[in-house]
Design a protein that fits this description.
about 300 residues, alpha/beta, Rossmann fold, Helicase, Ruva Protein, domain 3, 2 domains, five-stranded parallel beta sheet, two-stranded parallel ribbon, 7 strands, about 55% helix, globular
């Protein structure tokens, strides 16, 4: 049996992986490490099943590996590098910010950083009150609700909009204090458009150092949007006819050209939902319907979805 220190030394030198080190440990040590969920990967598998976002996936995988190593080092009473885990997600609508944040709550729970996989999504209206003192109460209530998991604040830059009579700053101050007081029990993610989020951080110097992790979500390519649309139909148990498979690329291209701001997967979701409604209108007019009819989306369904976009 290899002694624990030798395993640790080899691991630190990069000679063996985390999984190999885990397998070499005694049963007693493995049970200890299981308590921090080092070997679970359900969240990472879900992340890698998403279309595109390769850079985001790589950064989160690096972060996850780092946090797992810190957990392992603490088990052996070695110095670990503390890290602020609050984050900023920036990008256009529909680029996967909310989806990735929700999956991240599972990942951070699985590796033992968070006590639960709870995911709380809020916006300005959930945090800002109508009179002095009300905002702090509302914000604290939301933070307490999210404790142990991830608090995701969408369009966070809106908290800084308004004049001196606006209570958004009160919410920001409450959030910043909670980030320090409860940094071991909650991860706060601020999300929004790239330029607006950068301006928000620039006008609040104290925020920059508190958000060490900043992820920029790029727009999806047309090809990626086609794959996302196909998955959306497939997940809902619909199939595209042979003609509609070829046609959907054109439909998505035309929809994107019509938009002033790319809404990415949100645009594709709207298309899928409209196409499904169009298909329903078409199906109810038929005298006889079989299973394939109920599942098939044809070009007419997509065309009307484009016309109504």
């Amino acid at each position: 049996m290899i002694d624990q220190q030798t395993i640790l030394d080899r691991f630190q030198k990069g000679e063996i992986s985390i999984s190999k080190a885990f397998n070499l440990l005694t049963e007693e040590d493995r049970e200890k490490i299981k308590k921090v969920n080092i070997v679970k990967k359900n969240g990472l598998e879900e992340l890698h099943n998403l279309v595109g976002l390769n850079n985001i996936k790589g950064l989160i995988e690096d972060l996850t590996a780092f946090l797992q190593v810190q957990n392992l080092r603490e088990k052996y009473h070695l110095k670990s590098n503390g890290q602020v885990n609050h984050m900023i997600f920036s990008g256009n609508p529909g680029t996967g910010k909310t989806t990735v944040a929700r999956i991240l709550s599972t990942i951070l729970y699985e590796i033992g950083l968070l006590k639960s996989n709870k995911f709380t999504e809020v916006e300005r209206a959930d945090l800002v009150g109508e009179y002095i003192g009300h905002t702090a109460q509302k914000t604290k209530k939301i933070i307490n609700k999210a404790m142990g998991g991830i608090l995701f604040i969408d369009e966070a830059y809106s908290l800084a909009r308004g004049d001196k009579r606006d209570f958004g700053q009160e919410s920001i101050d409450t959030i910043v204090k909670s980030m320090e007081d409860y940094k071991e029990n909650i991860v706060i993610i601020l999300a929004g458009y790239k330029d607006e989020m950068q301006s928000f951080i620039d006008t609040n110097p104290g925020l920059a150092s508190r958000f060490a992790i900043k992820l920029n979500f790029p727009d999806y390519t047309i090809e990626q949007l086609v794959k996302i649309s196909e998955k959306m139909f497939r997940d809902r148990e619909y199939i595209l006819s042979d003609r509609s498979k070829h046609y959907i690329y054109r439909v998505i291209t035309e929809l994107r050209n019509k938009e002033e701001i790319n809404s990415n997967a949100r645009m594709v979701r709207n298309l899928a939902e409209k196409a499904i409604r169009n298909q329903a209108r078409r199906i109810v007019k038929k005298n006889r319907v079989n299973k394939i009819d109920l599942m098939t989306i044809n070009t007419d369904d997509l065309i009307r979805g484009l016309d109504n976009a």
